[in-house]
Amino acid sequence: MNREFFPTVAIRNAGRTPSRLTKHVDWLVDQFSLLDDMIRPGLTVLIKPDLDCSRSPFDGQTTHPELVAVVGRMLRNRGAKVLVGDSPIVPHGCIESVWKQTGIADVARREKLKLVSFERDGTSPVAVDSRVYYIARPVIEADLIINLPRLRPNQWSYFTGAVWNMLGVMPGFQKGLHFKKSFGSDGIASVVVDVFSIAQPIFTIMDASGFGPLNGNGNRPSLLLASIDSVALDAVVADLAGLDPQMHSTTRLASEAGLGIGWMEAIKVVGPDIGPTGRKALRSQLESKMAWFSRLLIRSVSPLIEMKPQRNADQCSACHTCVKNCPTSALRLGSHGETVYIPQLCICCWRCVASCPSNAISIRQSPMAQQFLDQGRKSCAV
Predict the structure, then answer these.
(1) How does the average pLDDT of the chain come out, rounded?
(2) CATH (one of 2.60.40.10, 3.40.50.11440, 1.10.357.10, 3.50.50.60) for 8-287
(3) Residue 215 — pLDDT band, cuts 50, 70, 90?
(4) Rounded distance, CA 181 to CA 305, Å?
(5) Other CB atoms closer than 10 Å to residue 182's CB: what's the count?
(6) Beta strands in 215-313 (DSSP E)
(7) Which residue has the higher pLDDT, 128 or 19?
């Protein structure tokens, strides 16, 4: 068990059958005795996976549902009330379809875990320096957060890791609005680190399936990495890929902000060494060959990338539920009782879409926004 001051990152080659996965997660948890004191009966614990609304649970772009199941069961056995929630950067349709597509709905039903809709359950404004972020209310109200990121390439900073995964606590497209104001990898990383500082998890298990060394059958085992320090975990991933952790923008900025340890000299790594072959495979899969095009595209067409709510007057019942649920009063009542939309105040949290009982509000994407999103998915798949 880890009782040292320096943070520990534990690594485990894990299988995908539930019984084996449970054994490996138990081993990872056992490395951190502090969890025994922190996870107590009666606490509300939010599991934050990494979900993608256009992906299946088996293509390497979303947290595997069985990992959510095993961690949820572990928390329930300790007497915690378990919630599961995430908001993909751009929801296509309702969050229920994302749960179904990614296999999370089946797991939650089987393991008696409560799924929460960040879009529907409201937000709370939180200021970091001069910037204001609207964070999902279940995140703010949870006693503890368990972070289950999926390791995958990222067009801004090599990989989407533990710190980056917490960006999903902001519902809707407001992430995109912040990104439009923050050109460059450091600008976007500062937004990610701000949000991480608001919603810091007590424990992170990273799903790095398919990134381990080749075994005798020519397949890569499922690799899991865990730590109480999310920043240290990202630093170890960068180091395994042959990168200087301080060159990974979110790791550097988060460590400079005192949110974790971002240099290898102060981190203890336990578990198997993935070896030169594993390190080479890891780096090759994390190098996004389309990253430069993503940056060029968003710089060039940012003013044309828009996603806004639109109301279908024929379906609207004039119940004004959208007005009551809008956190910024972008939707308000006019002088004659009509619904008025103030686009300058809209943060694209999609609560109006999720709360409308008549399904009279949908998400309007500009043609350039659709092209940007399609290109982003392709870059992650390279």
Answers:
(1) 82
(2) 3.40.50.11440
(3) very low
(4) 12
(5) 17
(6) 222-227, 268-270, 307-311
(7) 128
